[in-house]
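During the no-cost extension, the postdoctoral fellow (Dr. R.K.) reprocessed legacy sequence entries with the updated structure-token encoder. One reprocessed record is reproduced below for audit purposes.
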Amino acid sequence: MIRIGFRKVRRRFPARKGLSIPLVVAAACLGAALLALAWANRRAGTDYAPCLFRLVTDQPCVLCGGTRTTFALLRGEWMLALMTNPLVAISLLAGGLALAVRLLSGWTVSVTGLSRRTAWAVGLVLVLANWVWVWMTLPR
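Re-encoded structure tokens follow.
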């Protein structure tokens, strides 16, 4: 049985209270990078950067549409984000939720009852299914 739960993170420095400084710095840097990317793309008049894999092979990669998906999420266009690249959209939403829970409460999300081999197999199937989705939906 697979269980998803929350567990309290044991602090390395029990005397220090509050948020973990490296985690707060990482979250701030990620936010600043997203804002800088959004500003640069808006100034250039585009909403995406070209995919190197697609430029070379003329085929979409597994993450093609990821930048458009990120910008659609930042604008609040949830369905567009899911239609462009579902794996990136769900990963960003789940990662953002997990980060928010970690920063605000000190709890972390844990998955138990899943072997490493099964996790890799599920991840590979999700990536391949997403690649087929991207390949079928992105214009050529």
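The longest strand covers residues 3-8. Helices lie at 21-44, 52-57, 66-75, 78-84, 86-105, 116-137. The remaining legacy entries will be reprocessed before the final report is submitted.
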